[in-house]
Amino acid sequence: MTTTLTEGGLAGSKSSGGVKVGRPSFLWSLPAITFFGLFAIVPLGVVVWLSLTSWDAIGSPHWVGIANWKAMFSDPIFIKSFRITALLTALGIVTQTPISLLLGVWAAGYQRNRAILAALYFIPLLMSAAAISIVWLSLLNPYFGLPREEHWLFGGALFNGGFLFSSPATAIGVLTFVGMWQWTPFHTLIYQGGARSIPEVLYQAAAIDGAGRVRQFFHITLPQLRNTMITSVVLMLVGGLTTFDSILILTQGQPDTSTTATSYYMYEKAFQSFQFGNASVIAVVLAAVTMVVSLIAVRVSGWDKMRSTQEGM
Amino acid sequence: MTARRPNYTAGVFTSLWLAIVLVPVYVLVKGSLQNEAQYTSAGPLSLPSHLTSANFKLVFQDGFLRFFLNTAIITVSVVLIVVLLVPPVAYAIVRNRSRTVTIVFRILLLGLAVPIQAVIVPIFYLILKAQLYDTLPAVILPTAAFAMPISTIVLTGSMRDITSDMYEAMALDGASSWRTFRNLVLPLSRSGLATVIIFSALSAWNGFLFPLILTQSAGVRVFTLGLYDFTTANSVDAPAICAAVVMSIVPILLVYLFARRALIQGLMGVGGK
């Protein structure tokens, strides 16, 4: 191959001779980071400023200092929304983790029937959050949905006589169940990937030692999936803290305000009451909480490590 | 894991979950083809009968072709932006160890932690100021930006698998960064790129919050939002809702059938090791 030493426009390498390997200059990262910064990082600054202003979408925001902050932190619905968010998040983790862990480990096997079933389990992931919530809203309708048809199951007090959206407990239950239906496939995949990277030799050694399936699961699979579990739980945590679509479509925060989670309350404040200052306070709090949670998680799971097997090329 | 004897517990458990997954799917497909009176009187789980295509006609009359087109434009644009911007930044992250690039990577990682809900109010403000409200770019730009962090992670992952020998060989040939990128890095990160394309396409196609907040008129309405409005307006017509939902899934189902491997491998990789 003929060697041309002319450099490309963006290239900042010094490949003059020998094996001095050219490296891309930081300019290569500039377009992406500019674009990303404009739509994801700049808004974080803007929202802090908006939280100190009063704005109703018409005209310009005007400075009100910490008035919004005072108002929001004496707003009982806002305070209560934290409890609801925490409850929904915890219920999400508690229901989705065991199911996706077991399904993921199971689907990690290379048997043909497992592959086929795993492909079917994947279906909810193809549907938008909106579509999933709409389907369940229709399916759980007390007048023409499953509760009326399967009255033997839904008729009891446990399901509020089939009127699932009318009592706080069953409304929370619906959101948890729909969240589980929507997100379990994704987490199953994560666990499946994690389980497939466990060295087979560990199981062979355990089998020689006479360890059965259950012991293998608790002594090999579970410890080996520690990091996978951290990642999965963190994603559930962040997802749970920002549950929105399903609340908007399924319950609108009802009955009363028993399903008004924090992010849904922000939406109400902003786009139904047009109190953008107050909504911005909620947004800042929401961003702070999820970022702290994720940063801790990134540290623990090692996502931020630049090192790899290719280190020192 | 090698199975020696059949695992009956797993059999029961996986069948139960299969039923939970498939019940709504059955109701969706059957309901979309059933006449409304029959659906209401026989119930969602009843056997298919009184089949009709009227539901799909109703959905089409409601302007879903327009929503379909809008969603397609948004999806293609988002994928284009991501594919143009992310490979260079991933290349820089993998091959340039300077402090600046490390910071760039950290900012992108931070982006994973920024929930869309937390920035929707300021984005609404910025889009209003930029006079982009109620246009397709209002949805395209932030959707593309929020698809970038995960795309960067997937792509840096596959670019790290390129060995240093290959870079040295390129250097011996006197290749510039650009030529190395085009002739070595891009071809060898094809699978990562496929995952990124599918992933960003999915998030654009299924996006709900950005269109909900940043658009208003029917001319720029997207599928998910059309679905939502349609449901609100026809809340008692379950078969029509089923038909609308089925229509929203078909394109993704096609992508899934053709690109299942890329999608699943990519998502699996999210879990790390």
Describe this structure in words.
The complex is a heterodimer of chains A (313) and B (273). With 313 residues, chain A is mostly helical. Chain A has one domain: MetI-like fold. Chain A is 63% helix and 1% strand. Chain A has 14 helices and 2 strands. In chain A, strand 1 and strand 2 (62-63) form a beta hairpin. The longest helix of chain A is centred in the first third of the chain and has 32 residues, at 76-107. In chain A, 45% of the residues are buried. Mean pLDDT of chain A is 81; it is low at 1-18 and 306-313. With 273 residues, chain B is an all-alpha fold. Chain B has 2 domains: 8-52, no CATH class; 63-270, MetI-like fold (Orthogonal Bundle), CATH 1.10.3720. Chain B is 78% helix and 0% strand. Chain B contains 13 helices and no strands. Chain B has helices at 8-32, 36-42, 54-61, 64-95, 99-113, 116-129, 136-159, 164-172, 177-188, 190-205, 209-214, 223-233, 238-270. In chain B, helix 3 packs across helix 13 and helix 7 (136-159) packs antiparallel against helix 10. Chain B is globular, with a radius of gyration of 23 Å. The chains are: A mainly alpha (313), B mainly alpha (273). At the A-B interface, helix 1, helix 3, helix 4, helix 5 and helix 6 of A face helix 1, helix 4, helix 5, helix 6 and helix 7 of B.
